[in-house]
Specification:
Elements: H1 2-8, H2 15-23, H3 27-44, H4 50-72, E1 84-88, H5 90-96, E2 103-107, H6 115-122, E3 127-131, H7 142-159, E4 160-165, H8 171-178, E5 182-186, E6 197-202, E7 205-210, H9 212-220, E8 223-233, E9 236-244, H10 250-264, H11 275-278, H12 282-286
């Protein structure tokens, strides 16, 4: 499918994303994923009719294809010859930076994840990010790891910052936030090696996530902004900023927003494949 994406990415206006949504699928691979997603959806939304569960699964695959096209045509996101971006709440970010404080931009694995940061970069903000160590995650096939690494590198070049691996020294991050930088951190990231994971309420159950984001915010005094993207059409994405004020509850506040979003659009969350792992308490995981 890579040939299709490379070729379609050269189409004008929003046509690359429209083509991806319609044609960017491998029917054989999709069928297994759709069956899996339908089963998962039925567990968390038990009163939903099966045809609707199936529709959600298919919409997930369409969004996945569009997300892949984002990688191939990333520089056209937010341009006249690509996908339009609109930001709600950008005054919150401007206000948070009035005293030159550092800012933590909190994301979840929801919808078009990178487009929120790209929208802010288009406004002139330089953005850094904390990421998982892709090279160490053997659960991800090598070709996918290479694809994701290339995606991160392209993203970094657009937003003007750096990506720091979670196994690398955090001194760079702490120093940056204390010096007024902006850093992206994913609240719902799965990190089996995290030494401290806490329960957070999500869709009526507990998921266990690293609490590192909260410690970073408390230590640096950085302001907290939740960022979420919502795909409204092939040619338009709405980015919503929400100010979070309590570092001790920052992750739960972000997950509460995520839970509401996923309840509304279940197909737009990327972590369904690891939700069972997210629900395992740390003590059980280590045994």
């Amino acid at each position: 499918m890579s040939f299709f994406y490379r070729t379609a990415s050269k189409l004008p206006l929003s046509l690359p994303w429209r083509a991806a949504s319609l044609l960017g699928h491998d029917k054989k691979e999709d069928s297994a994923t759709i069956e899996f997603l339908t089963s998962i959806f039925s567990r968390y939304f038990p009163n939903t009719p099966k045809p609707l569960l199936l529709e959600w699964a298919k919409r997930h695959m369409q969004l996945l294809a569009v997300e892949r096209m984002d990688t191939y045509a990333m520089r056209r996101i937010g341009s006249l010859n690509g996908v339009s971006l609109a930001i709600e709440g950008d005054e919150l970010l401007i206000d948070a930076r009035r005293d030159s404080s550092g800012v933590i931009l909190i994301f979840n694995h929801y919808d078009r994840i990178l487009t929120g940061a790209i929208a802010l970069a288009k406004r002139g903000f330089k953005i850094n990010s904390l990421r998982l160590e892709l090279n160490e995650d053997t659960s991800i096939p090598s070709d996918i790891r290479l694809f994701l690494s290339a995606k991160i590198n392209k993203f970094d070049s657009i937003v003007g910052g750096i990506s720091l691996g979670r196994r690398e020294s955090m001194r760079r991050l702490y120093k940056g936030l204390e010096g007024g930088e902006m850093w992206c951190i994913l609240a719902d990231a799965w990190d089996s090696a995290a030494t401290e994971r806490k329960p957070y309420r999500f869709l009526g159950t507990d998921i266990y996530l690293s609490s590192g984001l909260e410690r970073i915010a408390l230590r640096t005094g950085a302001k907290l902004i939740h960022v979420a993207s919502y795909t409204e059409s092939a040619s338009f994405i709405r980015v919503r900023l929400t100010r979070l004020y309590d570092p001790k509850n920052a992750i739960q506040d972000a997950i509460t927003i995520l839970s509401a979003d996923v309840s509304k659009n279940p197909w737009a969350w990327w972590n369904w494949g690891i939700i069972d792992s997210l629900r395992i308490p740390p003590m059980q995981l280590s045994n």
